[in-house]
Amino acid sequence: MRRMNCLLRIACFICSSLCLGNNLSAQTWIWYPGDYEIWLSNEMQNRRTERGTFFPVFWKIDNHYPLVDFHKVFDVPADEEVEIYVEGQYNVKLDGKAFEGYPQKIFVPAGQHKINIKVFNQKSVPAIFVRGKTIKSDSSWLLTYEDKEWIDETGKTSDISTTKWVNAGYWNFNTPEQLPSQFKLPVRPQDAVSMTAVGAGTLVDFGKETFGFIKLHKLKGKGKITVYYGESREEALDTTHTETFDKVYIDQKEGDFVFELSKAFRYVNIFTDPDVHFEKVSMLYEYADLEDKGSFRCNDEEINQIYEVAKYTFHLSTREFFIDGIKRDRWIWSGDAYQSYLMNYYLTNDNETVKRTILALRGKDPITSHINTIMDYTLYWFLSIYDYYLYSGDVSFVRNNYDRMKSLMHFVLGRRNKDGLLEGLPGDWVFIDWAEGLSKEGAVSFEQLLFARSLETMALVADIVGQQEDAQQYAKLAGDVRKKLFDIYWSQQKKAFVHSFVKGSPTHHVTRYANMFAIFFDYLSDEQKSFVKDSVLLNKRVPPITTPYMRFYELEALCALGEQSYVTQEMKSYWGGMLKLGATSFWEEYNPQKSGADHYAMYGRKYGKSLCHAWGASPLYLLGKYYLGVKPTSPGYATYTIEPALGGLKWMEGKVPTPNGNIEVYCSTTKLQVLSPVGIGKLILKSKIPPKCKDGIFVKRGDNLYELKIESNKRYQITYQAF
What we know:
By secondary structure, this protein is of the alpha+beta class. The chain is built from 14 helices and 37 strands.
């Protein structure tokens, strides 16, 4: 009997954890690489509603391959029985001979054998779980979405080799009961802090921004219930303009009721028909179960609070994937995700969410538009691959995605104008940032800078995977774009990059974007960096940045210039400014010039702004990389640097996660302690006096600059004198 989503002898199981081990040889459910990520992202992103109306994404959606062939050759030392679990319709072949029907178990004699399982599943992703003593499903199985078998003239089955087979994709579904198609995020009960009658409604406050399912206790009666969700009290009470609401009709005796879709809110405003009654309101908090491995604490309690709220913001915006915001849009945007990857490396260091998000964003060939339709978001995607490799050391992911990188870069190269620059063509969205009056006309310098960096990334990755000819080609293209960047956009008069190149001429307008990226990309000489710091970053006449999105990079550039003391004050002013207004998570945009409920308006809507946005959590990254000062210099922290900078703090301590444990740092104005479980490190320290360490010898590298080699699993205690 044919069955879709055929699960043999097992009941439906909901996976309750996002955070399991990354063991390549683990027995697990497998599928065509990237397909589950695409399918799951489609499931997640198409849950968005706006005032009760379905709100789909703006870009082309890809789908999984519905028919997939799985195979592997095994050397079986002794006869064994093998169990087979499948999501979809399927057939099984042993050495080219098909078994009858839908076998739940097969017998495999000793010897070398090839197993093929072909699966069809249109509704969800074709997936298999195979369990035997030596025969098991893991990432070493080879897959194709094409028919690779044919019968030759002798009647034997042969393989066609016109298209290469690929290694299986997997996640953490490591038992037969953990159906990939049934995955859901875990939930836990959470009570409200107050419930108050306001007019004809009941206003419920959960105390802080949160995400989950509203639950009504001892609900009974017949009639309509309307729930208006608000990130602010004003939004929940303004029933005409709330961004999200639920309306349901019930007819039940007394019992609990949970609304179908999870939503973002702090407040809910509930209205019922006269015959409908409930006793209590609570929620089921929905979350990704990721462990905090990194940490930061210092003498400044405001900075500590900023760090804690940034952590909470990051966790709320980390779901099946790294999304932008929990009220709106609940989508995977590449620019937002790129910042989440970097914050992740300093907090949870969860490789699986990074990989899932990268794969979902990329989608499939053929490519017909930029990722999310945005030029700069495509370019961030390239950078994310090498960053992931640097922080994780996972070379297999790079190898497996090189072809995806190459075809996407081929698309990008085809979008150049006659000058060899990237310029917005029909269908391209040049985003950069949300900023009033920001010109997108012509070839913008910021896009060329990201383009050059993306080509450099392609050259690095091509070299890693052994494609030397490609590496040389991409390196040459990168050099050409960098030369044009300086020839066209660098202004000796302005001491900075100008914003754009329009109709054959550079403009005279200077913005912060290309200039600040050029600093931490290390594209500028020391003299040019000094020019940019004074003429752009510290120049109040250059239009300010009002989104946490680009403040992330502005403050990173200042940290890279050694301006942590200035950045500390900016964090206290900007993120502290949100806290002073009662923020319990960080916003999509913050303009100190606004007041009252005007802070909630965006996109022409009274409450259009997201009050919990992933890009608001950037202090996690800044404090880990530029204050604790820990960063890898070769893949997986085989080598790394520690260059602590107090930035006006009296003391700080924290942990930075690596693939093999946490690097621990304590720093005051006179003492420094370091312990690392991984690699060979280089401690770089500025001190008024020669620093002392009984377990190592400092080497002087310049005026007041000293260097110490850090070995793994050895605690270093240092005395010095901070500036």
